[in-house]
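Long-time lurker. I teach an intro course on protein structure, and each term I like to show students one example going from raw sequence to a predicted 3D structure in token notation. This year I'd like something fresh instead of my usual example. Would anyone be willing to generate the tokens for the chain below so I can use it in lecture? Attribution to the forum is fine with me.
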Amino acid sequence: MGILNVKRAYAGWDPDDGYRILIDRLWPRGVSKTDAAIDEWAKDVTPTTELRRWFGHKEEHFDEFKTRYEEELDSNPAALTFAQHCKELLTAGNVTLIYGARSATCNHAVILRDWVLRHP
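-- Reply from a regular --
Happy to contribute to a lecture. Here you go:
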């Protein structure tokens, strides 16, 4: 069984990443598609544009952002499919959710990872 990781797009590829899924609605600025080594781009499980703009990566909004994003995931049929897909991939090795935000702790990737791990 693999490990579900999160990693910033600017950190570069590593063999331990396993299957790499970009989970941003927008492609990370300044990262070439070749250098990113993305296996899949899952736009349909990202926060809505409205929620992303409201959050603005401000730490003081993070708790409320987490609640709102989890509500979006709970009501998004694609999110459950994504969780099942990740779990299938994890049977073969590691899966890394790739994001572009600057903060390693204040971003939607950590919320999505935890949400995926909580769902069957």
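Some talking points for your students: Residues 45 and 56 are 18 Å apart (CA to CA). The helical segments are 33-36, 49-55, 62-74, 77-90, 108-118.
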